Predict the structure.
Amino acid sequence: MTWRERRAAGKRDRKRAREKRVRNKEFARVTYIFVALFLGMMGYIVQFQVVKSQDLIQSPYNARKDAYAERVVRGDILDKNGVVLATTRVDADGSETREYPYGNMFAHVIGYSDHGKAGLESKMNFEMLTSNAFFLIKLKDEFQDQKNRGDSIVTTLDLNLQQAAYHALGDFKGAVVVIEPSTGKILAMVSKPDFDPNALEANWGYLNSSEDSELLNRATQGQYAPGSTFKVVTALEYMRENPAYMDYGYNCSGVIEQDGVAIHCYGGNVHGQVSFADSMAYSCNTSFCSIGLALDAERFRSTAKEVLFDSKLPSDLPYSQSKFMLNAASVNGEKMMTAMGQGQTQVSPYHMALIASAVANGGTLMRPYLVDSITNYSGQEVEKNLPKEYKNLMTAEEAAQLKQYMEGVVDYGTASVLSGQNYTAAGKTGTAEYSSDKEKDHSWFIGMTNVDNPDLAISVIIESADGAAKAVNVAKQVFDAYY
Amino acid sequence: MVNIIVEISKYLMIVLITMYTYHCFSIFGYYDPFDQKRILRKQNALMFMIHIVAFMVMYLQKDDMKILAFYVIQTILFAATILLYQILYPQSSRLVVNNMCMLLCIGMIILARLNYEKAVKQYLIAAGAVAISMAVPVIIRKFKKLSEWRNLYAVAGIASLAIVVVVGRVSYGAKLGFTIGGISIQPSELVKIIFVFFVASSFKMSLEFRNIVITTALAAFHVLILVVSKDLGAALIIFVVYLAMLYVATHQFLYVAAGVGAGSAASVAAYYLFNHVRTRVIVWKDPFAAYDNGGYQVAQSLFAIGTGGWFGMGLFQGMPDSIPVADEDFIFSAIAEELGLIFALCMILICVSCYVMFLNIAMQLHNMFYKMVALGLGTCYIFQAFLNIGGVTKFIPSTGVTLPLVSYGGSSLLSTLIMFAIIQGLYIVREDEEEDIERRKKERLRAKRSRQAYEESYGKRRNDMERAPRGRQKR
């Protein structure tokens, strides 16, 4: 081979190597594309597992939850002081019965675990079917072929307050929600009519066809016109639009008429010359209608949104979203009605309790919660929920001003039954018309105790209350039980 | 007591498969064939350990001797597959053989858990298919004219698909196959292989524009038949495989862009034309809203994966039976539920390892036809795995394809094993390729010359030259 030939051969080899590299470039690219596709998919799966799966597997369609029950005895549900609200009795033959010592009293908030699940029994299902017992005890159970004991749920509920609220409501339909404003702990939640979770089996057919919807948790899922309790929101909007609200004055003649819609003050009252504070204290409808006519509907709408109308609510239990329907196109009649809490506005007692709680807590809504901690069956803490801020619904100044007006309601207005107690109180009453029958209205109250450093925020509704039953009286009984 | 063993075994299997998967990729860091062999042997040991742990746990819970017997005959199959490949084809890629057996092994474990009868049936098909596929590398090596039968491939592919449309039976809303003598055959599984050969031979013939147009038209015809017979998964696979092959053959990214554009337009059209397609998209968007309308499959699959969590419920501890067709399309969810998501993610990485190896083989080949076949079959495999896993995890709408080698199903198993065997055959023929032959001829010529010059003193060297091992280092 001459050097010429060798050089040519060398050139050819180099060229071939270069060609091979070029030819393989596309192969490498295709490989990268598919590897990237798979890495993307794996990232998605990991994200699914970390972020979404915990909520997703709670779905009632997921029968797997019950598979845990074969290995674990469902844990207890306790009140804040450790009183048992739900427990599982295991008979000698191994059969299990879920028992609710307080029967109807906690029916909606604790819920039930047969015939599907509801309330905390549904929400905390996995936790109660998970055992964090000491591992040696678990091992012992395994060897003896016994079930492990599931973890207990320590709730924020206070038996004392729940009892007071339950009895105060009496035979009326309605709901009571009590929240500790500084932490967001839900201390009581009552809904009536109720049912006995111990006798669900016998009553299931009736409960599902009943027109009274006993199974519905009215506290979170009931939808009512807020009545005059909504004036708190109207007042907030008026203060925002009119920095000189202190100078407000209105002469109440007992009726206001606009575009053919006439609105009267409750009970045919004529309030005469009223200030802004008086309007709240007396719950003067004509004054608030006049305010409503002057408000900017769109700005009103955004304020309503800020206090969580048409928004998601923080909630451990299923709830109905509240509705605020006013907009720029609304007619004057609608504006007047909305300002005084009638019209198309819809709200749940739970939502009104959140608003009262935010006012009590300087405008800041703490994330409301029902589960204080999870402990293993012997009481050792596994997980603890701590208070967290959820959202500022209004500024501290606005909250302080509203609180002052609500104190007026107690001092010399419609809630004066709460004045002169061994605790201070503030609040707003309400009467919501819901049918043409003028004799029967829903009675509302939202409020707080120990006004300077509120202990409790409350929301009460009594459905179709005849004149004698007043929501404010229910609130009073709960407050009395607390102090 | 048994519960404790189930619990411990769960973590043990996760550790074992994690190690196995790690070695799938760590092996590329070793260049010494001895080190590589050591790792490959370690992988075999890990696989047999996972296998024995899984079957021991199942035996303890079911207390059925059948399970032990089944375990033994499976071990024989896996050992025989690994050994036969080593003996018959010492040049084959052992990593691919290992991965193939690992995936088969995972499939057998979960099938034995889900449905013993089906698992046994799957075993028999696997044994037969492995035996058949053993012959494939020889065929690839002997038949040098494989690249010249373009028209035959086209006719065979389209004809068998057309038969399905005409005499096909309807299963799960798609006309997937027909039954001959009790054996159900899904031609679309085997057509994928024929299609890859068709495209590869066509591109080898000519890369002129005219030929590309003809090939594209025929490929589109394949896709069309599959769409009409409602086998959307296979249609998508053929489409993507064609795009990959077209791109690599022509180096023209423009073709891919045009293809993706046409594909998107066709998908939108299919969405409006076929109820079948629309349902799947609706289910994908929100399986819970459409729960009673086909959404329950995906919903149950997500429950299974979510409830199983990272470590799984343990064998026989979950409820994979609540997922419809858990042993076919939704086998990934069953695996994730009982063996854990970590295990399932490792399985995905093993699939990816197969693909990387296939493309690695494609790059080492010189003959354009063989390169294209390796690329096409590899893409066919990996995209099917992607469609399956993406579908059951709600990453993409579900298309109803099986997870190759793991899912229950005779046609799928047979065609995948043949695919793997063809690629092994290509891996072996790379040594026989023309250029290498030329190079060796030249070497021999050079050696001859030097022999003439130094015949006396270096006579022995000739023998050494001829005996020298031919293989390049292998993985």
User: Anything to note?
Assistant: The longest strand of chain A covers residues 441-449. Chain A touches chain B at residues 1, 16, 20, 23-24, 26-28, 30-31, 34-35, 37-38, 41-42, 44-46, 48-49, 52-54, 56-57, 59, 61-65, 67, 71, 139, 142-143, 145 (CB under 8 Å). The mean pLDDT of chain A is 88. Residues 162-369+386-482 of chain A form a domain with the Beta-lactamase fold (CATH 3.40.710.10).
